Amino acid sequence: MDAAATDGGLTPTWRGIGAGRTLELLAVVLWMSELPLVRPIVTAKGIHQSRPLVFVQVRCRSHGDTVEGWGECAALGDASYDGEDASVSSKALERTIVPALFGQVAQDGRRLPPPSALDPVRRSAPGSPLAFAALEMAVADAHLRAEGRDLAALLGVEGRTVELGAVAGLAPSPDGLVARVAELVDAGFARVKVKVAPGSDVQHLEAVRRSWPELRLQADANGSYGAGDDEHLLGLDRFGLLCLEQPFDRADLAAHARLAARMSTPICLDESLGSPADVDAALAVGACSVVCVKPARLGGLGAALQVIGSCAAAGVPMWMGGMFESGYARAVNTTLAALAGFAWPGDLSPAGTYLRDDVVPGPQLTRRGPAGAVAACLPSGPGMGPPPDPLALARHLGRRVVMGVPWTNSSQ
To answer: Per the CATH hierarchy, to which homologous superfamily does domain 3-148+389-404 belong?
Structure first.
């Protein structure tokens, strides 16, 4: 797909952020917090007991006014899901990415670059895309707040509501999975994704389908199957899944293409998609027909908008994935999910359903339609949405690093 030709104008829109006002960079603050989970999150790759989060706060000045921008890193607490965990991300930000930003800013008259002009910063840490995505989000947020614009209005989706899906983790038994899915269905979620793995798939899905024959249901294997599992996975066709997500290792596009050619259930990729180029490559070889959009994994909001526009123009269905973000990044993802091309509700349940103590106010929920599906109203007001509350971050603070710009000794 040629993104420049098919992205529906999303890339030019992104490039317009920061064009209308000059921001002087004053400091960057890194916040490392650990938020408690409502319940442990179990996947085929491991168990998560809490959610470490790294936030990037950009402090700027514009015509005498102080402007702040916030970004959130999607990296998890260990490397079972991504090679870049929260500890790796925080080190990359402190040691490489923020210093690279300072270098770029110093060469440009101390002006904060627009988010579309951060390629020198991106190249400074090619192995830390999640950390870069957090900085890019903070830079975009600062520019939008300075310009008095919000993300939803920028993308032309203001005032819309977005149906929400939810995730049921890997369950120890079919009855345990049914009990968890029942909670989510009763809460009004319009689509449920369940985690599966060898030995925890057929009976589990049978039990769910027996209870909810019409439920919009998808399964996520997190790459837990391997060579010789094709025939077994073909048996999942009878469950009428929206898609089977990431059955094989992220690097094995050939295995996904082989299964996709035989299976009637659409194959979706997630872990395999680390950039717009990865999306193009996977679609070209038939490794998937559905794309899971995770902005951080794709390389940030700019890359995600490129993929969203290209897939929408090419008729490739998408859905919005989740990384158990705080309410801040989840609101950003929900806004993106209001764009054209998203085929069904994504992993967008409110952060309060899995975090005991969020750092921003929860999204406004409503119920619509005869089934009473839960939906979120998009955030409004300047920037990406309501920013993280420093007091809430401080309640669970592990470390806070203030990085003042090197060309001034003034404290910020």
So the answer is: Enolase-like, N-terminal domain (3.30.390.10)
Residue 131 has pLDDT above 50, yes or no: yes
Active site residues: 195, 294
Decide if 54 contacts 100 (C-beta within 8 A): no
CB 135, CB 102: distance < 8 Å: no
Name the amino acid, one letter, at 368: R
H-only helix segments in 19-158: 86-92, 98-107, 119-124, 129-147, 151-155
- Span 187-205, average pLDDT: 96
Alpha helices (runs of H) in 239-360, residue ranges in sequence order: 253-262, 276-284, 295-298, 301-314, 327-336
Which is more confident, 162 or 19?
Answer: 162
- Sign of the C-alpha dihedral, residues 283, 288, 293, 296? negative
Average the pLDDT over each of 42-56, 201-215, 247-261 and give the range with the smallest value. Answer: 42-56
Say how many Å lie between the first and final Cα of the chain, rounded.
Answer: 45
Q: Please enumerate in sequence order all residues whose Cβ is within 8 A of that of 17, keeping only pairs 6 or more positions apart, or say none.
A: 114, 115, 116, 140, 143, 144, 147, 154
Query: Average per-residue pLDDT in the chain?
Result: 92
pLDDT digits (tens, 9 = 90+) for 224-253: 999 899 999 999 999 999 999 999 999 999
Name residue 373's beta-bridge partners: 368
Taking the CB of residue 372, how many other CB atoms lie within 10 A of it?
A: 11
Distance (Å, whole) CA 57 – CA 28: 6
Domain ranges across the chain = 3-148+389-404, 153-377
Question: In the CATH hierarchy, which fold is given to the domain comprising 153-377?
Answer: TIM Barrel (3.20.20)
Query: pLDDT at position 59, please?
Result: 97
Torsions phi, psi for 49 (to 5 deg): -90, -25
Residue 13 token pair = 């829109």
Among candidate residues 174, 170, 254, 285, the one with its CA nearest the CA of residue 220 = 170
State the pLDDT confidence band at 79, using cuts at 50, 70 and 90. low
Say if pTM beats, i.e. exceeds, 0.85.
Answer: yes
Q: Which residue has the tokens 């299976």?
A: 263
CA dist 96 and 31 (Å) reads: 16
Work out the burial of residue 405: count CB atoms within 10 Å of its CB; fewer than 13 is exposed, 13-18 middle, 19 or more buried: buried
In the predicted structure, residue 270 carries a pLDDT above the cut 80: yes
What's the CA gap between 378 and 364, in Å, rounded? 8
Burial of 214 from C-beta contacts in 10 A (0-12 / 13-18 / 19+): exposed
**Is residue 290 within 8 Å of 317, Cβ to Cβ?**
yes
